[in-house]
Amino acid sequence: MSVKAEDLTHVMRDVLLLENQLPFLLLRLLWRNADDESALIETMAFFLVLRVWSTAEQPPIRQLIDLLSPPTHLLDLERSIFLWNSLPFDANQTQNYPKGNVIYRNIKELKAAGIGLKKGKTPYPSDISFSHGWLRSELTLPKIVGDDISIDITFNLIAYERCHDFQNDYGISSYCSFLDSLIDHPEDVKELKSQGIILNLRRSDEEVANLINTLGTTLGPERGKYSHVRAQIERHYSHKSLPTWLALGYHTYFSNPWTIIAFLAAIMGLVLTFIQTWYAIHPAK
Fold first, then answer.
1. How far is CA 58 from CA 107, 122, 123, 214, in A?
2. d(Cα 121, Cα 11) in Å, to the nearest integer?
3. What is the DSSP string of 132-200?
4. Any residues with CB less than 8 A from the CB of 12 and at least 6 apart, and which?
5. What is the mean pLDDT of residues 250-255?
6. Where are the beta strands (DSSP E) in the chain?
7. pLDDT band at 54 (very low <50, low <70, confident <90, very high)
8. β-strands 198-199, 144-145: how paired?
9. DSSP β-ladder status, 129-131 and 115-119
């Protein structure tokens, strides 16, 4: 059967609406072979990875099926695939990091402190990490597909995690809350796009920032899943090295190109003044 890409997009959006979910037990009864449960799950999974956010790197579906329990429905399987390689949060991860309240810092503040951004290899939250270096520290973020269908499905996944009969670790909500803490202004979105982290975006930077901030107000604080990453960032701030101070100074005083030009002109003026003074004291014979 030949299906156009735009038609598949509409189908994908409809079948992943929370209110449109059919129980997996019913899908198994409708399947051509009710006894072949793994074949049904595999077919559902391959249908889901057709979606745009999985084009960068698809998870090993056949290996993944052996690790997953039978899903409750298609949306539940979508959530499991997206979080397939995410490790559960371990509270011991933060024991060596600064105690107390962790300050939420956006992309602009991270850049000012000498923390660079690195594009992850996959679009999955398991790519989130922080690496500290003497000359450069980096925050690795997964690729984020910002098309309308991904946004719609994300809203449905968040709604699913809030269902009272679904016991879960709020993996999608925590991931979105973490992204919200990094994005406050359109400049943050622009920086993520320039690094190739946000892809296929048809909205303006301001619209994306407002959308994520609005979503963040409904999610509440991040539930600790990425607190070890936040703690490492805070340790970077607390123990400022020479590169960090240089980055802060550059961002504070030289973020404007006219400021750089004025600084270079002042240096040139000092050099010329020194040369003039030197020849005034030591005239050529």
1. 28, 8, 9, 30
2. 28
3. --SS-EEEEE--EE-SHHHHHHHHHHHHHHT-TT-----HHHHHHHHHHHH--SHHHHHHHHHTT-EES
4. 50, 51, 149, 153
5. 54
6. 115-119, 129-131, 137-141, 144-145, 198-199
7. very low
8. parallel
9. unpaired
The beta-carbon contacts of 109-116 under 8 Å, at least 24 apart in sequence, are: 110/139, 110/182, 110/233, 111/191, 111/247, 111/251, 112/247, 112/248, 112/251, 112/252, 113/236, 113/237, 113/240, 113/244, 113/247, 113/248, 114/243, 114/244, 114/246, 114/247, 114/248, 115/139, 115/233, 115/236
Query: Do 127 and 140 meet the contact criterion of CB atoms below 8 Å apart?
Result: yes
Q: Over the stretch 221-236, which tens digit does the pLDDT of each residue have?
A: 666 788 888 888 888 7
Query: Are 116 and 136 in contact, with CB atoms under 8 Å apart?
Result: yes
Cα 183 to Cα 58: distance, rounded to the nearest angstrom: 27
CA torsion through residues 59, 142, 227, 211, sign: negative
pLDDT computed for residue 45 by the predictor: 87
Angle subtended at Cα 176 by Cα 150 and Cα 227, rounded to the nearest 5 degrees = 150
- The answer on pLDDT for 241 being more than 90 is no
- Per DSSP, 119 falls in state E
How high is the mean pLDDT of the chain?
A: 79
**pLDDT tens digits along 118-146:** 998 888 888 899 987 766 788 999 988 87
Assigned token pair, 199? 């892809």
What three-state secondary structure class fits 267? Answer: helix
pLDDT tens for residues 161-203?
A: 999 889 888 899 999 999 999 999 999 999 999 998 988 667 7
